[in-house]
Amino acid sequence: xxxxxxxxxxxxxxxxxxxxxxxLIGEHxxxxxxxxxxxxxxxxxxxxxxxxxxxxxxxxxxxxNDVITFELDSLAPGSVKDWAAYPAGAAxxxxxxxxxxxxxxxxxxxxxxxGAGLSSSAALLCASAVALLGLRDLEVDxxxxxxxxxxxxxxYVGAPVGLMDQMASMCCSAGHALYFDIRAMTTDQIPFDxxxxxxxxxxxxxxxxxxxxxxxxxxxxxxxxxxAAELGVPALRSIAVEDLDEALTRLSDDVVRRRVRHVVxxxxxxxxxxxxxxxxxxxxxxxxxxxxxxxxxxxxxITVPELDVAVDTALAAGALGARMTGGGFGGCIIALVDxxxxxxxxxxxxxxxxxxxFTTPASLDATPSTGASRLS
Length: 376
Ligand code: GLA
Description:
Helices cover 39% and strands 21% of the residues. By secondary structure, it is an alpha+beta fold.
């Protein structure tokens, strides 16, 4: 008997999936109307689902025996807690947006580590949304599902995140990075195939516990919004690199000045990285990764020793560029390397972690994968 039948007493009507992501460059620019460049990972959340007629949503996860149930009609922000808040938030936002979803049994399975900065929250929201919509044959534009998932995370779960992770989980395509311009709300698929150039993208989970990540994220966002208000612009995207020095003289607080410098220079680095990728000069993107890390470390101040050691070690072992990726305070680094040095770089990071008494890091398959879809 399938796990689904064991838990819910029926077979599923279908199976849906949504992937995690790593962002290549453009960190913390999404809520500043900036530009990001994520790829979807092979790691994903999978949801098997069957429709119910009683207006109840029942969720179970393959790792646990409990079934959590809630009524669609009584959902309100915060009404369901812990991991079930994500499927509940997806159901809540779809109802708020007047989509005709109904009750459902949902079994959640995952090979996407949570707490590793790979966007498992967005993947769970997106997988839940596509399953709930798919059960009723409702077709919704993937970017609209991403916006709804972000709204659920902001308003139902209460996390003030930007739109990158949900867009990556919904809109990435295999073999490509997703160029997503948040101000213009436009996307473009940028071919990304390091192996074709004799290169590899390494993703290393540094296994550092996320320390104070929620509060620090909100604080960074608030600093950026305060700066935009002081500068009289709708968002920091409005400040061009050429006008940065002048803008900085108009800000009173040194910390805020550094936060602004990160965002403004990072947006320029995304533009440069994309231009190089379009010109087939992927190797030359390496130094932009490294410059991005330095900016996140010194100006945005969201790295931790594990991230810095991993990046410094990768570079010393011959990486073309390396940086932290994701929200910060833990999570993963990415490194662009010649394929022939991939093992050397990974071994060097492992050795450096042992020497620093850090938890053993783990590397992940970074094959650019496709956004959320129905599996069966
Ligand atoms: C988290 C957020 C995203 C984005 C990144 C940083 O993943 O969910 O919206 O801000 O941090 O780039």
